[in-house]
Design goal:
The chain is an alpha+beta fold. It has two domains: 4-257, Orthogonal Bundle (Helix Hairpins), CATH 1.10.287; 328-469, Glucose Permease (Domain IIA). It has helices at 4-14, 27-33, 45-62, 68-149, 169-310, and strands spanning 344-346, 349-352, 365-368, 371-373, 380-382, 387-395, 401-411, 414-426, 433-434, 439-443, 454-460, 463-465. α1 (4-14) runs parallel beside α5, α3 (45-62) packs antiparallel against α4 and α4 runs antiparallel to α5 (169-310).
C-alpha cells in the first residue's frame, strides 16, 4: 500500500461504509397513493410548485364548507403526492452523483498509485546511475593520476588492462594509445551518465509534482463524494418524509370518512336550504315584478281606451299581455367587493372528488358555487350592488361562518342575490338597505376555512353562476 492509500482509506471510512445511499423505498405504496394526483411535470420547479399549490387550493376550496381540518389534510395530501415523483427522481440523480464521485476517487487513487510506482522506479534508477557515475569518475581519476606521474603516458599503463608484463616501446605506445581511448570512452560515458542523471532528476521532479496535484484532486474528489453522499442522504430523507406524510394523511382521511359523510350530509342540507331560500325569495320578487309589469300594461291599455272614448273613436282592441323578455344581467352593474385588485385563489365550477376523500354526494364531484378571493383577514368587504340585507350573522350549519346575504331585487326581469362568507365580522343588519360600494363586513377565516380569504357567490334567478361573468 502506498503512502496515499491509507489517507484515502481513512477519508473514505469517514464518509460511511456504504457507497450508495439507498435502501428499498416503498414504491408500491407511493404509486398507490398517487392515483388521481395532479400532473406535476411542468417546465420548471416554480411551475411545478405553483401547479401543486393550485391543485391543493382547489381541493381545499371544494371542502371548505365541510371541515377545515379535513380540507387542509386533503390539500396537503395533494402537494405531498405531487412532490413524491420529483423527490424520488432527485434521489436517483443524487445517488448517480455519488457513484460518479466514487468512480472519480477510485480513478485518482489508481493514478496516485501508478505515480508512486514511477517515483520509486526513478529513485532506484537515480541511485544506480549515481553509483555508475562514481565508478566512472574513479576510473578517470586513476588514468589521470598515472598519466601525471609518468609525464603524460603511464609506464605501467598495462596495469589498467590487467597486464603485468613489460614489452617493446611499440607495445608500450599501443598500450598508451589504448589507455587514451579508454580515458576518452570513460569521459564520454560520464557525460552520458550525467545527462541521464539530469533527465532522471527532471522526471522525478515532474512525478513528484504530479503526485502532489493528484493528491489535491483526490482530496477534492473525496469532498465531492462526501457532499454527494450528504445530498443523497438528504434527498432520501425527503422521500421518506413524503411517503410517511402521505401515508399518515391518507390514513387520516380514510379514518375520517364517516365524519366526512356526516358533514357532507349537513352541508348538502344547508346548501339546499340556501338555494331554496334564494329561489323562493327570487321567485316572489320576480312574480311581484311581473305583476307590476302586468299592472302597468293594463293601466296603459285602459288609458288608451279612455282617450279613444273621449275623442269619439272606437277603443283599440286590448292585446293579451305578453311579459317583456329578460334583459342583460349586466344591468345590475356589479363591482368587485374589494378595493383594488385581489387574486382569485379558487374559481367557480365543478370540483372532482379530491384524492383520498370520498365521492361528493355520490355524484363524483361538487359544485364550487362561488369564487375565493385571496385577501388578508380584516380586509373591508363592500356591497357589489345596492340591495337589501335579508340574511346575515353567524351560521354554523353551512360552515360559512359570519356571512352576509344581499338581495338586489329584480332588474329587467332578472333577480340577483350576492353572498359573502367567512367574514371576521359584519357591520350590517337584517332588513338594512345598503348602497353599492358600502362597507358591509371585514374578511376573515370563520366557519370551515383553512385560512384568510373571502368566498363570494352570485345567484342569478335562483341559480348560482360564475361571479366573473357579472363583475
Amino acid at each position: 500500500m502506498t503512502t496515499m492509500e491509507p489517507a484515502l482509506a481513512r477519508r473514505r471510512a469517514a464518509l460511511g461504509p456504504a457507497r450508495m445511499v439507498g435502501g428499498v423505498l416503498a414504491l408500491g405504496l407511493a404509486i398507490s397513493l398517487l392515483t388521481g394526483a395532479p400532473d406535476a411535470r411542468a417546465d420548471n420547479l416554480d411551475d411545478q410548485q405553483a401547479a401543486l399549490q393550485a391543485e391543493s387550493d382547489r381541493v381545499q376550496a371544494s371542502l371548505e364548507f365541510v371541515d377545515s381540518g379535513i380540507a387542509k389534510a386533503a390539500g396537503d395530501l395533494v402537494i405531498y403526492q405531487g412532490r413524491l415523483p420529483g423527490a424520488q427522481q432527485a434521489l436517483l440523480e443524487a445517488q448517480g452523483k455519488v457513484a460518479s464521485a466514487v468512480k472519480d476517487v477510485d480513478a485518482l487513487a489508481a493514478r496516485v498509485e501508478l505515480a508512486q510506482q514511477n517515483k520509486a522506479t526513478i529513485t532506484s534508477q537515480l541511485e544506480s546511475d549515481k553509483q555508475k557515475i562514481t565508478d566512472t569518475k574513479k576510473l578517470i581519476g586513476q588514468i589521470a593520476s598515472q598519466a601525471y606521474k609518468s609525464g603524460g603516458v603511464p609506464t605501467n599503463v598495462a596495469l589498467l588492462f590487467g597486464s603485468n608484463e613489460t614489452g617493446s616501446l611499440t607495445e608500450s605506445m599501443d598500450l598508451a594509445d589504448q589507455a587514451m581511448r579508454s580515458q576518452n570512452a570513460a569521459m564520454t560515458k560520464l557525460t552520458q551518465q550525467n545527462a541521464t542523471n539530469v533527465n532522471s532528476q527532471a522526471r522525478l521532479a515532474a512525478v513528484e509534482q504530479e503526485i502532489q496535484d493528484l493528491k489535491a484532486k483526490a482530496d477534492a474528489a473525496l469532498e465531492r463524494e462526501k457532499a454527494a453522499r450528504d445530498d443523497a442522504a438528504s434527498k432520501k430523507a425527503d422521500v421518506d418524509k413524503l411517503i410517511d406524510d402521505t401515508t399518515r394523511l391518507n390514513g387520516q382521511l380514510q379514518a375520517a370518512k364517516p365524519g366526512i359523510e356526516a358533514n357532507l350530509a349537513k352541508v348538502k342540507a344547508a346548501q339546499d336550504s340556501v338555494a331554496a331560500e334564494i329561489q323562493d325569495r327570487d321567485r316572489k320578487l320576480r312574480e311581484a315584478w311581473e305583476a307590476e309589469q302586468r299592472r302597468l300594461a293594463e293601466q296603459a291599455a285602459a288609458a288608451a281606451q279612455a282617450a279613444a272614448a273621449a275623442q269619439g273613436r272606437p277603443a283599440p282592441p286590448q292585446a293579451p299581455y305578453v311579459a317583456p323578455p329578460a334583459g342583460s344581467p349586466s344591468a345590475f352593474g356589479l363591482i368587485h367587493p374589494f378595493a383594488g385588485q385581489v387574486p382569485i385563489t379558487s374559481g367557480f365550477g365543478w370540483r372532482a372528488t379530491p384524492p383520498g376523500t370520498i365521492d361528493f354526494y355520490g355524484t363524483g364531484g361538487y359544485l364550487h358555487t362561488g369564487i375565493d378571493f385571496g385577501v388578508a383577514c380584516g380586509t373591508p368587504v363592500y356591497a357589489a350592488a345596492a340591495g337589501t340585507v335579508f340574511n346575515s350573522g353567524w351560521n354554523s350549519a353551512d360552515g360559512g361562518g359570519w356571512r352576509v346575504k344581499l338581495s338586489h331585487g329584480v332588474i329587467q326581469g332578472n333577480s340577483l342575490t350576492t353572498i359573502y362568507y367567512h367574514n371576521s365580522s359584519i357591520v350590517v343588519a337584517n332588513g338594512q338597505q345598503v348602497a353599492q360600494g358600502q362597507l358591509i363586513a371585514y374578511s376573515g377565516s370563520t366557519g370551515n376555512s383553512t385560512g384568510c380569504h373571502a368566498h363570494f357567490e352570485t345567484w342569478l334567478n335562483g341559480v348560482a353562476v360564475d361571479p366573473m361573468t357579472l363583475l
